[in-house]
Structure formats: structure tokens, C-alpha cells
Design brief:
Elements: E1 2-4, H1 18-27, H2 29-34, E2 37-42, E3 45-50, H3 65-84, E4 90-92, E5 106-114, E6 119-127, H4 131-137, H5 139-142, H6 150-170, H7 179-191, H8 205-218
Antiparallel strand pairs: 1-4, 1-6, 2-3, 3-5, 5-6
Helix pairs in contact: 6-7
Length: about 220
């Protein structure tokens, strides 16, 4: 996706804060209707959460492609706001639909690839709840995809949990087990939720998350 502020050089404004970006979206009617929330902004990109609504539906069980394109456009705009405080209209956008998204909360990561005086390039990835299962089980194939770095990203993700487990052991709050094995066990159990939970089921997403965390941390014993 490429965005242009104008054909002239525009003085750079102060970087937008997360609060400022969310306030901006609340003022724009279409953005407010999408319900997009900027969750974080940093060196690894700007991350947004878009809760599912029935109007997003296309074919049964899928998100409409036009909605996905709009979400990509909005996410790219937020990446530029985070970097330079403002952005201009979209002049070109290419969307690669690698697979269908399920009817569930959507998450995006928008990263600036190039910032120019008139044209900037932004990469946006849209994910749904099935991404965790794909990354957990299919990473050997994903690792072959150029530019995705799936294997390295999966390893870094596991190491974060292992570090957290080590800290818990040092503080006396967790049992002194092997941190790497403990992290993989916890992640495997947590990611298995995506194999059975769907938003249409009676168990809501938040409750399923709480139940899983409770079982992983306290087990079945009273």
C-alpha cells in the first residue's frame, strides 16, 4: 500500500500517540463504525484490533474482501500517523488474499517499509484467531515463505514465555520446572483453543480465555 500526503514536501508533525489515533478514529464516521482500536505502536509496527460485527460477513463463515481492504487502508494510515503525525490519501493498494478469515475478531500489524517526502509504503498483515494455530502447527512450511520469518518469530514468541516462567520460579510463584518445556506446554494448550472455539458457540471468547488460563495455572484440583 502506498500513501501520499501531497505532491509537495509536507513539514513533519509530532508523532501521534495511541490515544490520539483512537480519538481520530472515533471522529471519523466510517472508522468509528469499523470499531478499530489501536492497541500498540512501536518499532515492530502499529497493532489494531477490530471486533467482529455481522455486517462484515461475505460468504458464510468469511469476512467480506471489501471490509478487509478497508481495514488494511485504515491500518496503513495509522502507521503513518504514528510516524509523522498525519497521512494523505491512498494512491495505490495491492491486497493478497492468502486465505479466508473466519467470522471473529481481526488483528492487524502495519509496518512502514519506506517513508518519502511525498510517497510512503506500508505493509499491513491481517490475522484472525486461527493465526495462532497456523503458526503453531504449520510453521515449518511458513518458514519457507520469503520475508515472513515465521520460524524465528515463533522461537522469539516461545522465549518470551520461557523468560516469564523463569521470573516466576525466581520469585517463588511457579514450580521449578524446565522453563522451555513449560513454555511449550502452556502455548500448546492455549493455542489448542483455536481448534474448537468459534465465536458462534455459546462460550464467548473472553470466557474461553479465562477458563483456559485458570486450568493452565491451577489445574483441575480444588
Amino acid at each position: 500500500m502506498e500513501l501520499s500526503g501531497s505532491e509537495r514536501r509536507i513539514p513533519k508533525r509530532p508523532q501521534a500517540t495511541i490515544e490520539g489515533m483512537n480519538e481520530h478514529n472515533a471522529r471519523v464516521p466510517f472508522n468509528a463504525w469499523l470499531g478499530a482500536e489501536v492497541m500498540s505502536a512501536g518499532d515492530d509496527g502499529v497493532r489494531l484490533r477490530i471486533p467482529w460485527r455481522v455486517e462484515f460477513g461475505g460468504s458464510p463463515g468469511m469476512t467480506h474482501g471489501g471490509i478487509l481492504a478497508a481495514i488494511i487502508d485504515l491500518s496503513a494510515y495509522m502507521a503513518l500517523m504514528a510516524e509523522q503525525g498525519s497521512a494523505g490519501p491512498t494512491i495505490d493498494m495491492r491486497v493478497d488474499y492468502h486465505r479466508s478469515t473466519v467470522n471473529s475478531t481481526l488483528y492487524t500489524v502495519a509496518k512502514l517499509l519506506r517513508v518519502g517526502s511525498t510517497i510512503s509504503t506500508v505493509e499491513v498483515i491481517v490475522r484472525d484467531v486461527d493465526w495462532a494455530a497456523v503458526l503453531l502447527h504449520a510453521w515449518p512450511e511458513l518458514a519457507k515463505a520469503p520475508g515472513l520469518n515465521a520460524g524465528a518469530r515463533r522461537t522469539a514468541y516461545e522465549r518470551k514465555f520461557a523468560r516469564a516462567y523463569r521470573e516466576g520460579v525466581r520469585e517463588g510463584r511457579l514450580r521449578p520446572l524446565n522453563p522451555d518445556r513449560a513454555a511449550r506446554t502452556l502455548l500448546a494448550a492455549a493455542n489448542s483453543v483455536t481448534s474448537w472455539h468459534r465465536p458462534a458457540t455459546p462460550v464467548r471468547e473472553a470466557q474461553a480465555t479465562r477458563d483456559t488460563v485458570e486450568l493452565l495455572t491451577h489445574g483441575f484440583r480444588r
